[in-house]
Amino acid sequence: MNIIFYHPFFEAKQWLSGIQSRLPEAKVRQWRRGDSLPADYALVWQPPHEMLANRVALKGIFALGAGVDAILGQQRRHPGILPAGVPLIRLEDTGMSLQMQEYVVGCTLRYFRRMDEYQLQQQQKLWQPLQPHHHDQFTVGILGAGVLGKSVAQKLTEFGFTVRCWSRTAKNIDGVGSFAGHEQLPAFLQGTQLLINLLPNTPETAGILNQPLFSQLNANAYVINVARGAHLLECDLLAAMQVGRVAAATLDVFAEEPLPPMHPFWTHPRITLTPHIAAITLPEIAMDQVVANIQAIEAGREPVGLVDVARGY
């Protein structure tokens, strides 16, 4: 069994030795340009076109992240990067759910208890209690009901929040309202006080965080984007904040990363930025899952996280 690995910034040595120790019978190597030797499996993130093109003998391609938008975007720009008929498999959770719960719950409670506003008052040396939010008037809406969206929704209900999810197809999550399809998006947005984006990045969801969407939220709503920067029309967010439709936003992902030094988000008093760290791949857990999936494929079973390339997730 031959396994090739490529990642633009992960430490290759850790992954090569980790996979090798879990699959002693395999030959694991870091792919380098010009390498056309046989391979059964590929572990990749943003692979060069020549790494995978024409490798029709691959039994599986593993995307080393929760999303597969990067590699599918490459396929749209350079058709052929994904060999026809070869399964594409994404990481499922691998420790990301807990990280995302921590990040989103922290941000939600910060807005619910108005800590962001108290921080601004501290800078002004202003001692002024604010009218608290109430749970029955603070509906949380989550765009996306996949592994991460479901995990976050369930955790937020434990804090007494009314939570609703919107997704392409209806999902049944205990204690969480379910909305599905474009026809139910307006009903989902109406009454939402805090909007969390955890959608997959596909051509259909690009730019979904826009002026028409913001206009349907409650006045002075809050926005948390922890999915992809491509989902947000940045000028529309700034405009919505200027007129009071959106009171504040927490952004972990951006159209351009790192965020350019002169970008207006840096200095906006009601925008909180983090450098794409809401949930990161944990190598040891990820390697366990990759190896378990390789073993499943070798045994003739379907792997966990199999991607529907046509849908984009």
TrEMBL record:
- Which residue range or ranges hold the D-isomer specific 2-hydroxyacid dehydrogenase NAD-binding domain? 107-278
- Which controlled-vocabulary keywords does the entry list? Cytoplasm, NAD, NADP, Oxidoreductase
Localization terms from the record: Cytoplasm
What general EC class does the enzyme of this chain belong to?
oxidoreductase
Which residues catalyse the reaction? R228, H276 (proton donor)
Q: Which EC number applies? A: 1.1.1.79, 1.1.1.81
Q: Which reaction does it catalyse?
A: glycolate + NADP(+) = glyoxylate + NADPH + H(+); (R)-glycerate + NAD(+) = 3-hydroxypyruvate + NADH + H(+); (R)-glycerate + NADP(+) = 3-hydroxypyruvate + NADPH + H(+)
What is a single molecular function from GO for this protein? glyoxylate reductase (NADPH) activity
* General function of this protein: Catalyzes the NADPH-dependent reduction of glyoxylate and hydroxypyruvate into glycolate and glycerate, respectively.
Q: Which family does it belong to?
A: Belongs to the D-isomer specific 2-hydroxyacid dehydrogenase family. GhrA subfamily.
HAMAP family recorded: 2_Hacid_dh_C_GhrA (MF_01666)
> Could you tell me which NCBIfam families the record lists for this protein?
PRK15469.1
By what name is this protein known?
A: Glyoxylate/hydroxypyruvate reductase A
From which organism does this entry originate? Yersinia aldovae
Q: Which gene encodes it?
A: ghrA
